[in-house]
Every structure is written in C-alpha cells, then in structure tokens.
Amino acid sequence: MTGEVAGFAMDSLLSNGALDVFYTSIQMKKNRPAYKLTVLCNEGNLEKMKRIIFKETSTIGIRMYKVHRECMDREFKTVDTPYGQAVVKISRFEDIVNIAPEYEDCKRLATESNISIREVYDSVKRSVYNGKY
Fold it and tell me: pTM of the prediction?
C-alpha cells in the first residue's frame, strides 16, 4: 500500500466518522515491514469503517477490540492577539487545564506577521490566560 493510498484511506475514515486514525510501523512474518492501521470509532460506525478499510487498503483481515475512551471536556474560543485572532482549544479535567492553539490559525498569523510560529503559539496562550476572548 503506497503512502498516497494510506493517506486517502485515513481521510476517508475520518470524514466518515472515525474518532481517530493512525498508522504504526511494524514487522510482519518473514521480517516484512508493514503498517498497522488503528481506527477508533463508535460502535454505530463499525460496519461503515470495516467497509472503508476493506475497500481502500490492501488488508484481508481486521482485528477488533472494544476499548473505553476517556476524554477531557473541551471548548473552542477565539482569542485576540497582537497578530490577529486565533482559535484555541481549551480542555479540562477536574483541576487540569490544557491550552492548544489551532495550528492553521497560528501558521497564518506567523506568515502574515513574519514571525516564528512559536511566538504566535505563546501569544495565543498568553491571551487565554489574560482572558482575551
């Protein structure tokens, strides 16, 4: 399976309801290199995911396991920075708070302002901590 086919399969799975999709480099029998495709989905999407996997990849078998998935509460906010507005994801669990600026917004602001993307990320986080949303 080529990288392009793997990317297309991933896009198809995600656009059809997969919660997460990733590849892991593995060694198969006779020491052959391969990729393990992992797809997380709700039970209601299982048949659709299986169909996409069989249609879009070279696999002839699927191993399935039920897993429990725990997620932080999250919200998206638009914050003002000296470089413009950016969306940030704020995730919470009990007393734990994670701040994750959206990459595409930060990339755009860094390019427009001719500064490093790290500076934009830092500015977005400061804006969240200072309540500028």
Answer: 0.69
**Axis-axis angle for helices 46-56, 3-15 (nearest 10):** 160
- Closest C-alpha to 127, from 79, 88, 76, 89: 79
* Cβ–Cβ < 8 Å for 5, 11: no
Six-digit token pair at 95?
């007393």
In DSSP terms, 36 is beta-bridged to 24
Give the pLDDT of the chain (133 residues) as one tens digit per residue.
889 999 999 999 999 999 999 999 999 999 999 999 999 999 999 999 999 999 999 999 999 999 998 999 999 999 999 999 999 999 999 999 999 999 999 999 999 999 999 999 999 999 998 886 6
Neighbours of 74 (CB within 10 A): 12
Q: Is the dihedral of CA 128, 101, 73, 95 positive or negative?
A: negative
Please give the domain boundaries of the chain with CATH numbers for all domains: 3-56 (no CATH), 73-129 (3.10.20.300)
Q: Can you read off the two tokens belonging to residue 13?
A: 């799975």
